[in-house]
Amino acid sequence: MLRKALFLVLFASLLSGCRKPVAPATTSSTAVPATFHLRGKVVSTDASHVTIDGEAIPGFMAAMTMPYKLKDPIVATELHPGDRITATVLADKDGEYFSNVRLDDIVIISQARPDYKPAVQYHVPKAGDEVPDFKLLNQSDRTIRFSQFKGKVLLLTFIYTRCPIADYCLRMSHNFAEVDQALAADPELYKQTHLLSISFDPAYDTPKVLRSYGGAYTGKYTNEKFLHWDFAVPSKKDLPAITQYFDVGVTPGDSNTLNHSLSTVLIGKDGKVIAWYPTNEWKPADIVAQMKQAAGV
Q1: Average pLDDT per run of 10 along the chain, which is 297 residues long?
Q2: Gap between the Cα atoms of 149 and 270, Å rounded
Q3: 135-295 maps to which CATH number?
Q4: CATH superfamily name and code, 1-117
Q5: Fewer CB within a 10 Å sphere, N or C end of the chain?
Q6: Structural contact between residues 15 and 279, judged by C-beta atoms closer than 8 angstroms
């Protein structure tokens, strides 16, 4: 991504980090969010939020320093302390409160360091990308590699078992369980597909923990054989390479939580990316249809 430009306009789908929102939580709504204009200076960033020393926003808040979640967390890698920005603040109205406050349409109007280069370069998966042969340790304490899934359509996502947010890891795992059940209803399709949930928490998510977590989501608990759905984790050493390749930002949060972005990827029988889903908005039925098409069933 170009850092020499003086502005950057963002237009991706809503995505927040795995942490509690700044404003009171609300249920999802189809109402058009209120919009406000923000000017301020970047104080810090994490995987999905930016803290801004902002000027007063008429009708919304006084001048203050506060964290905002990013509508597109990828932009966190493009922002650094001292940058002056303008942005659109989106906020859902919930009675007398505003909730789900996030930033969109960020424009860098002045860079603190024009020659700045991000310390970490994230790869954005694109259709046709050849996926490296990453190595993982699965729930059965066995080493698995991506190359062993060639010849099958592979659907993978990223989670960690301690994730407390319903719309993040929990939703991904529930969605995968629904996909798994739908695929099982078609024996021929089932044979030509595989699911893989990858943890980015190797310190806690041991094979034993992953086995318990996975068995709960398949509904077979200790009787689960894990023939169609693996739960696996890379080593601490290998973790940066796999999270950066699949564009997963992860930073430490409060109380043993992790702030993170989402990444779900569909990989073809040839080991190449078919589609990438960087949000939680994808539907299991749509994924099953894509997997069926990719499998040629």
Answers
A1: 35 38 42 88 89 89 88 87 90 81 87 71 92 98 98 98 91 97 98 98 98 97 97 97 92 83 95 94 96 97
A2: 9
A3: 3.40.30.10
A4: Copper binding periplasmic protein CusF (2.40.50.320)
A5: N
A6: yes
* Amino acid letter for position 81: P
Residue range(s) of every CATH 3.40.30.10 domain in the chain: 135-295
Q: Which two tokens stand for residue 268?
A: 């073809």
